[in-house]
Amino acid sequence: MGILFEDHNFSLFWHAFVQTIELSAASALLAIVLGTLLAACRVSPVPVLRAFGTVWIGVFRNTPLTLLFFAVTFGLPRVDVHLPAFLCAAVALGCYTASFVCEVLRAGINTIPIGQAEAARSLGMTFSQTLTLIVLPQAGRAVLGPMSSVFIALPRNSAIAGAFNVAELLSLQQTLSERGYAIFAIFFWIALAYLCISAAVGLAFRTLERKLAVAA
Amino acid sequence: MLNRRTSAAALAVLALAATAACGKSGSPSASTDSSVKAAAYPVKTDAKLDGSPTIAAAKKRGKLVIGAKADQPFLGFEDVTTNTRNGFDIEVAKMVAADLGFSESQIEWKTIASANRETALSGGQIDYYVGTYSINDKRKAQVSFAGPYYIAGQDLLVRKDNSDITGPDATKGKNVCTATGSTSIDRIKTYGATVTAFDTYSQCVDKLLNKEVDAVTTDDAILMGYAAKNEGQLKVVGKPFSTEKYGVGLNKDDKVLRDAIDDALKAHEDNGDWKKAFDATLAKSGSAAPQPPALERY
């Protein structure tokens, strides 16, 4: 149990913990922005945008995340794009998660009665106004539950970044086991750290739900 | 129209990712030149191993289960096209098996990742492990070691045309790649190098060939394997700056087996099999076989 407090392991652990949180936060931000835009594309009246949204979802939701990391880390340099490792990881993880955010949001949009959009149109609102002022706020509230699942999965998915030059929690396991610590003690602390992060995300969504949920 | 502009940007990213995915991932496959062959190891029929629970169990199942690495060229490598294993560690594992009374066909290989070595040994999933396994005190508390059968040292792998990285002192401010979590990271950092860490060394070698990093660092044995695989493109600097004693890992309580493996290593070092194994594998990197290290029986 003492492994955290010997050999300066704690500073390593803390650094890895913070890296996981930073990477999760950065990719969550990217995922929310991109995911919302994608959802808007998928319900937009412009066929090209709809097709773009569909292709994006098809590519990013169906490709294994590790493969996306590979494409960004080892593919981009071949076309002379050199990004720092953290950015590579955030892009891969953000684009992947965005596809899930988009689909959850789209499901929410589908729950809004068509009459709402028609009413907005009849008041002279444009498509973007209808979407941002009328439809998305309601859709967002409706999907808080499934959305929390997406964002609880995100920090755990970020573990893959450890293999691609980001010193996050799971890669710490390799450092510590190389130093000769028993694998179970290492995993205990790592699992606990992931649990803390997931629990915090879950709690945040629960609070949001309480504040925003519409009484049925 | 914010919408259109951002989606155009997003489209650009997608297109980029798509082209990236098509990038050539070719690295030359391991050279199959077999002009130098490792020796064949005659199987000992009179091996005395009474009192070894590991061997008793192996005899009962009729097979010896050996843990190894599968991704280290010329060291511990699994060729999935021919379904064979080859490399220096594999040869060492085979010569030990022969002296324990098991022929090559009675060996079952199991690929075990570094992090799982101790659990696999103490849990009895494998009988012994040969795969760049450094002997250290923390590990000795969990498993036993026979050997060492090779003394490696941390070294640097650079592109053949590189002349400014002559040793660890010359890595200050240079970009050096190594495996995530390896002890090599801590050591190279003390020389002021910028460290890049990936899951496998082959990823580092890819970055080295693509000139994104200046050097790859880890034990020289591993680097020699990659230099041999990329003959004419890469070279090992040859100034080791640490000492790693590679041992054969086995279950902690099995002293009979440990002594038997030590005897086997000694016998094959003395009769020249050890050197032949090196010449047939790692020597392809251009490095000559060193003297086998003295065994540390305990």
Structure in words:
The complex is a heterodimer of chains A (216) and B (298). Chain A is an all-alpha fold and 216 residues long. Chain A has 9 helices and no strands. Chain A has helices spanning 9-43, 47-62, 65-75, 85-111, 114-122, 127-142, 144-157, 169-178, 183-212. The longest helix of chain A has 35 residues, at 9-43. The relative contact order of chain A is 0.15. By secondary structure, chain B is α/β, with parallel strands linked by helices. In chain B, strands 5-1-6-13-7 form a 5-stranded mixed beta sheet. Chain B has a 5-stranded mixed beta sheet with strand order 10-9-11-8-12, sandwiched between helices. A 3-stranded antiparallel beta sheet of chain B has the order 2-3-4. Chain B is globular, with a radius of gyration of 21 Å. The N and C termini of chain B lie far apart (76 Å). The model of chain B is unreliable at 1-33 (pLDDT under 50). Chains A and B meet through α1, α2, α3, α4 and α8 of A and α1, α5, β10 and α7 of B.
Outline the fold blueprint.
The complex is a heterodimer of chains A (216) and B (298).
Chain A: H1 9-43, H2 47-62, H3 65-75, H4 85-111, H5 114-122, H6 127-142, H7 144-157, H8 169-178, H9 183-212
Chain B: H1 2-21, H2 53-61, E1 64-68, E2 71-72, E3 76-79, E4 84-86, H3 88-100, E5 107-111, H4 117-122, E6 128-130, H5 137-140, E7 143-152, E8 154-159, E9 175-179, H6 183-189, E10 194-198, H7 201-209, E11 215-219, H8 220-229, E12 234-236, E13 244-251, H9 255-270, H10 273-280
Parallel strand pairs in B: 1-5, 1-6, 9-10, 9-11
Antiparallel strand pairs in B: 2-3, 3-4, 6-13, 7-13, 8-11, 8-12
Question: Could you give a quick summary of the protein structure above?
Answer:
The complex is a heterodimer of chains A (about 220) and B (about 300). Chain A has about 220 residues and is an all-alpha fold.
